[in-house]
Amino acid sequence: EHLINTLFKRGAGVDELSPLIPRYQEAARAESIRRGQLCYEELDSLNASARLHEARGNPEEAKREVLALLALLRAKESKVHGVLFAAQAILREAGTHLSILDRERGDQELIAAVDAELAALCNM
Prior knowledge:
globular, 0% strand, mainly alpha
């Protein structure tokens, strides 16, 4: 379990998480570049950022981060195999924790996009 998820689960506040998540995203992106392949942390950092934006009351920013996560998976499709199960888990976790992905009240277009990406990942 990663630090950010642990902090969310333990009820860390927005003020505590705000400075950590951008740094996490930056470090995760650098790690993907260093490895030459997509790493779990890069996907996780986008999910964490979406959760933070939603906690701040910015659902459009949260949606932007989910769309960035989906775009990253599509753009790096050939490099997803190393993090396939992690990518599936992150998308499922996003569906659990983000109200914009709530099946009844969420953004139905975004939910469909996440579902389609999950199906594609399951077929890899």
